[in-house]
Amino acid sequence: MPRNTDPSLHGFERAREYKRALNAAKLERMFAKPFVAGLSGHIDGIYAMGKNPWDLDSVLTGSGDGEVRLWSLSSQETVWRAAEAHRGAAKGVCYVPGGNTDRFLSVGADKLAKVWSRTESAYMHDGVTPEPVATYQGKSAFSSVAHHRNRPMFATGANSVEIWDVNRSEPVTSLAWGADSVNAVRMNQTEVNVLASCGTDRSIILYDLRTSSPLAKLVMTLSTNAIAWNPVEAFTFATASEDHNAYIFDMRKMDHASTVLKDHVSAVMDIDYAPTGQELVTGAYDRSVRLWDFSKGHSRDIYTTKRMQRVFCVAYTMDNKYVLSGSDDSNLRIWRARASERAGAQSQRERGAVEYADKLKDRYKYVPEVRKVLRQRNIPKGIKSAQRTKNLMLTSRKNKEENKRKHSKPGSMPRVPERNKPILGVTHK
Amino acid sequence: MSTAESSNKGGAFAKGNVEETAASYSDRKEKVQVKSKKAIHKVQHEQRRREQAILDAARAEVLMTEEAGYLEAEGMERTYRIKQRDLKEHLDISSADKIFDLDLQEFGPYSMDYTRNGKFLLLGGRKGHLATMDWRNGNLTCEFHVRETIRDVAWLHNESLFAVAQKKYAYIYDHTGAEVHCLQKHVEPTALGFLPYHFLLASTGNTGKVVYQDVTEGSVAGEHRTGYGECHVLKVNPYNAVVNLGHSNGIVSMWAPKQAQPLAKILCHQGPVQAMAIDRTGTYMATSGQDGRLKIWDIRNFKQLHEYKTTRPAHSLDISQQGLLAAGYGANVTIWKDALADKVKKPYMQRTVGGTSISDVMFVPYDDVLGYGTDKGISSIVIPGSGEPNFDAYVANPFQTKKQRQEAEVKSLLDKLAPDTIQLDPNFIGRLDPRTAVQRQREAVARQQQEYTENKASGQYLDNTVRNRTRGRNSTAKRYKRKRQSNIMDLKKLQEMELLEKRMRDNENKKRKVPEAEKGALSKFYEQKRKSN
């Protein structure tokens, strides 16, 4: 097609571009259908989830009644299950790393850690629980499990962090700094000898596996529910806190959080990084899943459904396209990571149009009309009213503090940055 | 006004000064007090991209296949002496075919309009004759008679619809000639104009109103009384979609659909404005008046540049895409070249038609052809160098297929602009307002205060207009509102504040103890008054 770039031929260039940006924003919201599928099967709520870094298709879940299931995401069904894997809740599940392994671990409140194999502990039919490949007896109820990236060892969280060698029936090491129970334990998958745990004593502790000793301890104002290591930057990790926020920390400098992710109105229960390390997903007690950019303080999207209850575990799939959530209502849900994106191959022309629309939206995102369209979400009444209440409380607290500051000696009440507020102290060993 | 930008437009894409343009762009980089490295980097990146885009656009001009060429005279020859029949001998067959006359003796004088891609011609005879055709190959698409006066005709966004200003109302017909709409809001229209990016049909008429109608949804986007009586001259400024009206008292007024007052007014002539034309960059306007003058204006700053004389007042004017000015007066059509920015002494081309007078002239977009309507039909002549040689297929395509037309229609409807985006400066959209929110509010309050004092001085607002309402004043909602709006100043609030102050002053004066010396002989009354209170 012949083109001529003479501006006098292209009238109202700016106004038309703005109009196109507005249309693009509207279309994005029109096509935003984030919910892909809800996978039912569990009888109790889902409290543990483990993704397989080598396989896009499969994901593990553990439920409150001790059942462990292996799902195929593409066919949207259970492919393996152990109905009574644990007495009491299955508190943690994880894959044994390695491209061709079919083993995975589960830990329960029954003080047992079990290794399963997809092929060896074959699932026969309903009513028959497959046999684990190996069983380890712990001293107290387990809360979490994480496997080492390349060595046959795994860590469990109970009253203390215990490191297990798969060939031994007793833990190799027991790590503790202060005596309290552990909420979650995560192995760093890049800097493989670093381990993070968080406990009910509001602490986050980093351990070094080479010396079997703690590195640093960070004490927050409220306890942390989950930890996720950044898969790209080995030294950053994100935490899901009881104080409704999620925090991103640089382990080299933990006296402040590098980003505070604020939007949830209830305790954040789980957090996971996208494989790119650029985005995060959180699940919260307010029955919502939120998606975040690592550098922005507020979420870019919120996912809810009428039937979804408290979200206890979330995961970003390894293709960066979907997020998974497990909640109290016993369903595993699959969501799109970008709500209006469509799966499948795109033609050159289609991709061009999508890229142009993205660029336009990016360019005009601060213009009020476009911003309103892009940001508006219909969120449940419960969350909305909680937001209102929370906002009111926070503003009045802020006003009170400002009033106090006004009437006290200048400099006696310094302003504390939001990034420092939740941190009570950091101790290095 | 956007003088700087508009003047820069032509230069930025001229072939010769690519390097200068880029250099001047980088000179404009100002030192901005931004702390964030990220933001600085972003701005710099954007600036580099812009510079690159200008260079790329200039380089892409190499790809343009056509070049504009003018008639050039040698020695004693003069271009304005060259006749069409001389020209015809030297033209190729397809171009020579563009010189023709349509002999339509009965229903003239004719007004005409070409579609935006120049492919179709619409002609309307004063006495009711309407026809549309693909004029290059002479294919008539429709022809009919409306049996009443036709004053003006205009194509809408493409060749499928056109509007006609008839005796009582304006009508819209489709390409088969079927009447689609009767626009009863346009009463006795005399001139029509179509705003292609806004999908608005503008008309003016004997009622002295300017009416805008949205042709996609049928609603009236604006209807304003000009206050200057009946009006016959309407032209749309293609640069900013402002409608210019030429009035019988010599004023040219500029209108936007959402503003009841004209955006600007210029006194152009001592007597009625006869015709008007605006160039496509929105820089120049040509007007002709009954006073026999043909004036060229810079409409960015509303100043007259120079004027030409025609033997009789020019009845119709047009400016081509390449900036050629055509004027039809009496039985003559005269075309000037390079006549807008500077005054030229001799015309470029000329044609005299015997025994009739010119009613309408119009250049064909993307072609070197001028069409004119007379009492006895319409004619088409070749004016070398008048049209834009390189078309953009996504803007207007003279070789458009049916499928392309349909697709372009949908795209342009998606990009349809709202009527309230029409301003004198079309680039106001997307421009950053550098003031902070506080500054903006402060300015607004200052403006209101000034307005208040001015109005008060002129006695427009009286103190007693403020009622002292007591009932229902202290509801929770009102208290909340009062608290929230403590910093919002409006006229009413200022008045109330002043009144309150005055009352307080009065009360103070009442309570004031009057010293004995001031009382004098009237001390008795002071006592009494206090008692009666």
From TrEMBL, chain A:
GO terms for cellular component: small-subunit processome. It comes from the Eukaryota. It is found in: Nucleus, Nucleolus. Gene3D superfamilies: YVTN repeat-like/Quinoprotein amine dehydrogenase. The keyword Nucleus applies. GO terms for biological process: maturation of SSU-rRNA from tricistronic rRNA transcript (SSU-rRNA, 5.8S rRNA, LSU-rRNA); protein ubiquitination. WD repeats lie at residues 39-81, 261-302, 304-345. Keywords: Nucleus, Repeat, Ribonucleoprotein, WD repeat. CDD domains: WD40. Its main location: nucleus. Residues 386-396 have a biased composition (Polar residues). InterPro entries: Sof1, WD40/YVTN_repeat-like_dom_sf, WD40_PAC1, WD40_repeat_CS, WD40_repeat_dom_sf, WD40_rpt, WD_repeat_DCAF13/WDSOF1. PROSITE patterns: WD_REPEATS_1 (PS00678), WD_REPEATS_2 (PS50082), WD_REPEATS_REGION (PS50294). Residues 337-423 form the Sof1-like protein domain. It holds the Pfam family Sof1. Residues 380-429 are annotated as: Disordered. Belongs to the WD repeat DCAF13/WDSOF1 family. This is DDB1- and CUL4-associated factor 13. It comes from Linderina pennispora.
UniProtKB/TrEMBL annotation, chain B:
It comes from the Eukaryota. InterPro entries: BING4_C_dom (IPR012952), WD40/YVTN_repeat-like_dom_sf (IPR015943), WD40_repeat_CS (IPR019775), WD40_repeat_dom_sf (IPR036322), WD40_rpt (IPR001680), WDR46/Utp7 (IPR040315). Residues 1-45, 449-483, 502-533 are annotated as: Disordered. WD repeats lie at residues 266-307. Involved in nucleolar processing of pre-18S ribosomal RNA. The keyword Repeat applies. Coiled coil: none annotated. The keyword Transmembrane does not apply. It comes from Linderina pennispora. One of its GO terms (biological process) is maturation of SSU-rRNA from tricistronic rRNA transcript (SSU-rRNA, 5.8S rRNA, LSU-rRNA). This is U three protein 7.
